[in-house]
Design brief:
- Helix content is 17%, strand content 37%.
- The protein has 168 residues and is α+β, with helices and mostly antiparallel strands.
- The protein has a domain at 10-62 and 88-113 and 132-167.
- The strands form two sheets. The chain has a six-stranded antiparallel β-sheet with strand order 2-10-9-1-3-6, covered by helices on one side. The protein has a five-stranded antiparallel β-sheet with strand order 7-5-4-8-11, with no helix packed on it.
- Helix 1 (45-56) packs antiparallel against helix 2.
Amino acid sequence: MADEPEEGLHPFVAVAFVEATGVGQRFGKRHWPLHVTLLRFDMAPEAALTAASGAFSCCEPLRVRIGHDAAFGYRGRVQVSLVEHDAGLQALHERILKAVAAGGGRIHSPHHTGRGFRPHVSVQGERRVHPGQTVLLGGVSLVDMAPDGDAEWRMPIGEWGEGTSDAG
């Protein structure tokens, strides 16, 4: 299967949570807190933590503005709110992209990285952000996509920056 990591690699995603979520706080794969994905990748666990630590060691809180809604995914079934261009958010994406590539990680959907990066917040049922809203991204987290080998769960394993976020 294309989404399964190669042997020795583990699935991770670097995100900026909109809804505060602490390290070790597990959630189901279909029940994500609101967040902006910075990069989805596979990497050896220690290397992933090292890459994220290097990329996000000087992470400052960012205020980003929510743009219009869009439909992503197969047949447009994933409803999202785009994030307007923000140089700081783009820089965070580029730093983790560079660190993961340098550490031998496997990048998912490389065409959605670099200039193809389209930051967004997926709509989660009734939970969502709205066009024109300003959102504080207080930190960046590394999320284990299969803690203890169980792909039904997700769990933040590292956090950089202030770690507090709010949708206001």
